[in-house]
Design goal:
Elements: E1 2-6, H1 13-25, E2 30-34, H2 48-52, E3 57-60, H3 67-77, E4 80-81, E5 86-89, E6 92-97, H4 109-121, E7 128-133, H5 153-162, E8 166-169, E9 179-182, E10 185-189, E11 195-198
Parallel strand pairs: 1-2, 2-3, 3-4, 6-7, 7-8, 8-10
Antiparallel strand pairs: 1-11, 5-6, 9-10
Helix pairs in contact: 4-5
Amino acid sequence: MRILSAGDIHGNKFLAQTLANKAQKEKADLVILCGDLIEEDSLENVLKPFKDKNIKTIFVHGNHESKASADFLSYINKAKLIHGHGVKYEDIGFFGCGSANIGIHGLTENEIFNTLEKAHQGISYLNKKIMVTHVHPANTKMEKFSKFVPGSTAVHEAIKKFKPDIVLCSHVHEAQGLEEFIDKTKIINVGPKGRIIDL
């Protein structure tokens, strides 16, 4: 399976179209978006380019959009919001939690962990699992790229407990492209330019 993953589009229609074009050119089977897709004052439909190209898309929301906005984007674009849910494509399970531990739409660390735990239940039987979050885990290199955007202790705890093969996140723009490991789990900060990942 080939995936294009990106985050932090922040309502940029040109960037969304560029990513959709890249997904099509690279023959991505699935697009995974890691939140902060819109700005609440604009509500641009940045998922439309993926829908227009008939590219299967799953996503979580970030701390810049509400869950209600994410639900609306999901509905009008037939994209799958995996906040608190697990989905299976081929033999791979994807589960996620949107938002972050800061901001007006922020969640507490307990809420983040509980959401990931609930999402994981549906795909726990699968051997290969990908966890999708907006916020990055605490106690990582990517956390050090920002003095005001803390990593999530709950995401770190979920990695330790559920042992996903890969975690896809964004949130810290300066850490775009950074890869690191917690135990055997690879964490990738995909950023707005997007990453092609072959599974």
